[in-house]
Amino acid sequence: MEIIVPIRQVPDVALNIRVNDGAVVEDGVSFVISSWDETALEAALQMTEELGGEVTLLGIGPERVSEALRKGLAMGAHKAIHIQFDSAGTDSFAYAKILAKVLEERTFDLILTGKQSQDTDAGLTGSMLAEFIGLPQVTNIIRFGDLTADSMTVYRKGDYGTEVIGLKLPALVTVNDSLNEPRLASMRGIMMAKKKPMETLDPESLGIGPEMLGLQGSMTEVLRFEKPESRKEGKRFEGEEAETVPQAMEQLVSEAKFIV
């Protein structure tokens, strides 16, 4: 089974993100693989361990994206492709268009990616990519079953419960981050990753003109970033329920305006 896993490198949201003049300050920021994409990679590795085949990572962005690709190779992916350019201003639509261009001459059985990216939480790129290249798609997968070389059963987290869907391959699937616990790269994996192939391409070599890149190729524009206000300290009511419940209700009505 040949599986493509597009991954996105994002700021580590577990650390303090600083905003200055409407922009994220990148100095001192650690960049990591988006957690949803790590989950997709783990799923792909488990599939190839069961059925055989290879996992190819696909990353888009500046030179530092190679670090995320190398980490994915250390986890067990077999090879990687890096489309290298300054991706500032690129939105989900533009990313999907670029991915579609990269994949149009390549053969694969499955595209696996996270349902969203942990920096924008847009959740649009996977679905757009499937539409652009004419693949069936299922989003927000929480479990796989009945896996074969040309079909699978997927369990999707829907609005009203778990949806069970039979899927013919090739197809595109986006995964929920509850699907699995991604493995850690071993020391042996880190050493082997240095020898695994990583193809670096520029947009021009793929026939991607400047009109497809950055803001020119995007349908949306981020105007500014704003730091959310710090949450105010809550109030605690002590005593008997007959006393504290009316006090809490009074605060919800008069101060919080939560109940009208």
Can you put this structure into words, describing what you see?
The protein has 260 residues and is of the alpha/beta class. It is 27% helix and 26% strand. It has six helices and 13 strands. The chain has helices spanning 35-51, 65-75, 92-103, 125-133, 187-193, 241-254; strands at residues 2-7, 9-11, 19-20, 23-24, 31-33, 54-61, 79-84, 110-114, 137-145, 151-157, 162-168, 171-175, 198-201. The strands form three sheets. The chain has a nine-stranded mixed β-sheet with strand order 11-10-9-12-8-1-6-7-13. Strands 2-5 form a two-stranded antiparallel sheet. A hairpin with a 4-residue loop joins β10 (151-157) and β11. The model has no long low-confidence stretch (mean pLDDT 92).
